[in-house]
Write a structure and sequence with these properties.
9 helices; alpha/beta
Length: 300
């Protein structure tokens, strides 16, 4: 899927600048100012209740995916998960200029994909995906009251049960093996290895680890058939790890688990290098992560 140069330049330049900020903060021993793996706990006044943290269109309630999820979930620091186009804001507020000048200029660039019909050299008609850039604004940027439509999981919702259910539905040929001090997916046996649940010091990290290995499993040849690196540290290996990290983050935000920290900060350097070398790298990794997330959870 080729991204138009104008769109790729705008999005990747924005992402690159923010990742530079994160990298400088981490090297200085500081918390990243907009840590890409931190999401605040959503407090709606109830007890032991989780809200979805996944960025979505505020009108349709459809979650964003691919690069748009990356931009809106990891690179923005707003309490609300709802985002709107300018036309949607105008319709909801009945105002011609519903945003302040400052907020108007602070819209977030995302990509809208549309299939267009083209005739190839052989005379055959094909549907070609075409991306164009447009802007959205978060609910927190809008001073007018907008309709509330919270989607909150009930008090009996259990993230552990949810993640375990996702892994079960993968129908791993080799099953899930508990115990030891390593977490992994082994393609040759189509199995996942995980430490025992009580070995984790934090329940969120436990479920995030399960999601990470689950995303790895979605890439198996008989599932999504993603290419994996043959050895630790090679480019394909690093790429697969980034896909799994993003896919796990999508899964956790989908069910309301706050992403407290970046698990592998060294990957930031990989992002920075890849963004310089290949404009489409970000779009590709985010798209692969979205496919894995959708297969694992059945969402979207």
């Amino acid at each position: 899927m080729k991204v138009p140069d104008k769109v790729a330049d705008a999005v990747t330049n924005s992402v690159h600048d923010r990742l530079v900020e994160y990298d400088k903060a981490i090297k200085a021993g500081e918390d990243a100012p907009f840590s890409p793996w931190f999401r605040p706990w959503k407090n709606d006044g109830s007890v032991n209740t989780l809200q979805p943290l996944m960025a979505r269109n505020g009108v349709s309630k459809r979650p964003y995916s691919g690069c748009n999820w990356f931009v809106l979930n990891l690179l923005r620091n707003y309490e609300s998960i709802d985002w709107y186009t300018l036309n949607q804001i105008k319709q909801l507020t009945q105002e011609d200029r519903p945003l302040t000048k400052e907020e108007f200029t602070n819209g977030s660039d995302i990509v809208f994909w549309k299939a267009i019909k083209r005739t190839d050299d052989a005379g055959k008609e094909r549907m070609i995906p075409f991306g164009r850039m447009y802007k959205v604004w978060n609910r927190d940027q809008i001073s007018y009251d907008l309709p509330e439509n919270p989607e909150v999981f009930g008090d009996d919702f259990d993230p552990k049960t949810e993640i375990d259910g996702y892994l079960s539905k993968l129908e791993l040929k080799g099953g899930i093996h508990r115990g030891g001090d390593q977490a992994f997916f082994r393609p040759s046996d189509d199995c996942i290895g995980l430490p025992n649940d009580d070995a984790f010091t934090c329940e969120y990290e436990r479920e995030s680890t399960k999601a990470h290995e689950g995303i790895h499993a979605t890439g198996a040849k008989h599932r999504l058939d993603r290419k994996r690196g043959s050895r630790y540290g090679d480019a394909a290996y690093a790429y697969e790890e980034l896909v799994a990290e993003l896919g796990a983050a999508m899964t956790c935000s989908y069910i309301g688990i706050p992403l407290e920290k970046l698990q592998h900060t060294q990957y930031i350097q990989t992002w920075l290098k890849k963004l310089k070398d290949d404009k489409n790298f970000l779009f590709s990794a985010a798209a692969e992560a979205s496919k894995g997330f959708q297969l694992l959870t059945g969402a979207i």
